[in-house]
Design goal:
The protein is about 20% helix and about 35% strand. With about 70 residues, the protein is an alpha+beta fold. The protein has a four-stranded mixed β-sheet, with helices on one face.
């Protein structure tokens, strides 16, 4: 596998959640740095064989922003 993509969103209770697209991998972290460590750890747990590990891990950060016109 060349690449795996994670969708990263803010958790309403604090911290960040990351969900892999196309794989059943989910992890969390209180900070971006902690999340990155947890994502790599989760990938290593999910893909047991070294040769199955993706070469690139992409984190796509999504945030909602509400604007008022009033």
């Amino acid at each position: 596998m060349e690449e795996i993509l994670f969708l990263v969103e803010q958790d309403p209770e604090g911290g960040l959640n990351a969900q892999a697209l196309g794989h059943s991998i989910f992890t969390q972290g209180d900070t971006e740095e902690e999340l990155k460590v947890n994502v790599l750890d989760a990938i290593k747990c999910h893909f047991e064989k070294q040769e199955d590990l993706p070469k690139i891990v992409r984190l796509h950060f999504v945030r909602d922003e509400v604007l008022s016109c009033a």
